[in-house]
Each structure stands twice: as C-alpha cells, then as structure tokens.
Amino acid sequence: MNAALAAGIATLEAEAEGVQALVHALRDGLSGPFLAALALVRDAPGRLIVSGMGKSGHVARKIAATFASTGRPAHFVHPAEASHGDLGMITVSDCVLALSRSGETAELSHLVLHCRRLRTPLIAMTFVADSALARAADVALILPARAEASLEAPAPTVSTTMCLALGDALAVALLRERGFSPAEFGAVHPGGKLGAHLKRVGDVMRQGPDVPLVGPDAPLADALLIMSAKRLGCVGVVENGRLIGVITDGDLRRRLNAQAFSLPAGALMSADPKTIAPEALLVDAVAMMQAAKITCLFVADSAEAPLGAVHLHDLLAVGAG
Going residue by residue through the chain (321 aa), what tens digit of pLDDT does each one get? Predict the structure, then answer.
C-alpha cells in the first residue's frame, strides 16, 4: 500500500479508537462527571461560554456553535482576548467550559481566576486529572489518554477528535433531556435545505383566492376553468365549509367523456382527499406527496375546513424537495 494512504488510514483508525475509548469511559468512571457537567450547563440561567487555546480553541468554537444550534445559547471566548477585556463577556449567571489537552494552558489562567472570583461554574475538559485546570474546575471531564496519530510530529489529532466528540455528546444529551423539538431546531436553522425541510406548511401554502375550490353542484366546466386558472392541477370540492373531495387532472383524463360535462363536480371527485395541517413540517408534506404519488395537498384544520393548498413546486422553490 502507498505509504501516504496507509498513514491516512492509520490516522482514521487511531481517531476511531480514541472515540471508542471515550465510549468505554462514559460507561464507567466518566459517567458521573459527564452528568454533573450536563446539569451545570442545563441549570445555568445565562449562556454557555466555551474557551480554549490553539487547536483546542478551534474545537471550542465548534462546540459552542453546536450548543447554540441545538437550543442552548452559547459562544466562544478567546482566552488571550479574555485577558484584555473580554472577561466582561462572562457573568455569574453563565457556565464556562474550558478545553486544554494538558490542563496547564497559561492563557486560560485569567479566565479561571475570573470564574473563581464570580463563582461562575467551570467545567474542565482535559486529559490530565492532576492539572491546574482540572483542580480549579467544579467538574472535570478527564478524557482517556491516547497517543496522537503522528509520532513524528504529534500535532493534536486524536485528542481534538475526542474533545469534539465529547462536546457533541454533551450537546445531544442536553437537547434530548430538554425535549428540543424539530420545530425548535428549524427555528434556528432557517437557511439551506435543512432549514427548508423544517419550515411549516403554513409558511409556504397558497391561500385565499389562490386556492382552487368549487361546490359539489358546480358544473364540470366551472371546475375546469378554476383548475386552469389556479395552476395547481386540481380543484377542491367544498360543502358546508368542509373539504369533501378533490378533482385532479388525472381524474379528468380517466373519466372525461361526453357525459362527464353533464355531471356536477361532486359526481367526479375523489372523496376523502389527503390533507395536511398548517403546522406540519415541509418534510412531512414531501413525504406524504411521495407516498401518495401526488403533487398537491390541501391544507385543512381539524374540522377539514380548507385553509390553503401546497404544491410540490412550492416545496421545490424553497429547497424542501
């Protein structure tokens, strides 16, 4: 095997083994500190402040971003900048998570002293139990020691992957404990395909005069005119304020003959049409359309009163298809 390829594979194997060592630790001695750290983050009335220097700082930024995107207000504070005024970003109501492989990062000292002075809860994430950071912390997350991937130049590789994974574990554990919902997740992810899938049907549905509706006694000619004008490929049939059926262009192709023009919409409709609630997620609308092999859904309330309509093209337009 090519030596460079072998080194790449060995790096991934070493990092996978590091994460697996974390799994074993969480099932054993690390479980208590993990749950204690989780409680501190959960119960702090302010924000989660994450800090670290060098490569640990890059990991800390990602951990802060993950917590923020999963419903726990969080941000990164650079330890060197903290010593020059940014300590003012940390208050007594916050909780601090500080990362350091050795636990002896000098730049973290002022941040640690600030936490002690304010009695701001401090969580350490380090590999050395007898380090200054671990001793100063309210809770110390001591990761199992593992060698870095490269012996020639032991830059942080396995250690940063493990810290990143443990940060993810804390964030997901917290969102599960808080009951963080897909709707809440969508509210902080409005952009991109993910955000589109987590929007509500009511946000994109067509309403009012844009919704094709007729009564059950309406002549087929009227239904055809409305279907053509609204460009949804269907028309809903409403009786006493309730959606009782739908006529699609496919229905018309199958049933259209000379006698059809003498029949009212109610005689040509498909009864019990599929509907979706306005608070449903767009991803649910896409799934329903795919399962039923249809391109349009009427939006209705619990009493089947039509509120709007959503077409597959509407979903594609916002990136949800």
Answer: 699 999 999 999 999 999 999 999 999 999 999 999 999 999 999 999 999 999 999 999 999 999 998 889 999 999 999 989 899 999 999 999 999 999 999 999 999 999 999 999 999 999 999 999 999 999 999 999 999 998 777 889 999 999 999 999 999 999 888 876 665 665 555 555 566 666 789 988 999 999 999 999 999 888 889 998 989 989 999 999 999 999 988 877 777 777 777 888 888 888 888 899 999 888 888 888 889 888 899 999 988 899 999 998 888 877 765
Q: Domains of the chain (ranges plus CATH)? A: 3-180 (3.40.50.10490), 197-317 (3.10.580.10)
- Cβ atoms 183, 203 nearer than 8 A: no
Nearest CA to 312 out of 286, 292, 288, 281 is that of: 286
Q: In this structure, are residues 216 and 244 in contact, taking their beta carbons and an 8 Å threshold?
A: yes
Q: 95 pairs with which residues across the strands? A: 48
Task: Specify the pTM.
Answer: 0.65
β 95-99/275-276 pair status: unpaired
From residue 313, alpha-carbon distances to 176, 198, 204, 231, 290 in Å are 34, 17, 11, 11, 13
The answer to whether 252 and 174 have CB atoms below 8 angstroms apart is no
What single letter denotes the amino acid at residue 245?
G
Give yes or no for a contact between 194 and 281, defined as CB atoms under 8 angstroms apart. Answer: no
| Residue that has been written with the tokens 């919409």 in this structure | 265
Angle at 52 between CA 194 and CA 17, to 5 degrees: 70
CA angle, 54 as apex, 49 and 55 as ends, to 5°?
90
Residue 235 burial (10 A CB sphere; 0-12, 13-18, 19+): buried
Task: Report the distance separating Cα 78 and Cα 51, nearest Å.
Answer: 6
Q: How far apart are the first and last CA of the chain?
A: 42
Sign of CA dihedral 192, 194, 198, 201: positive
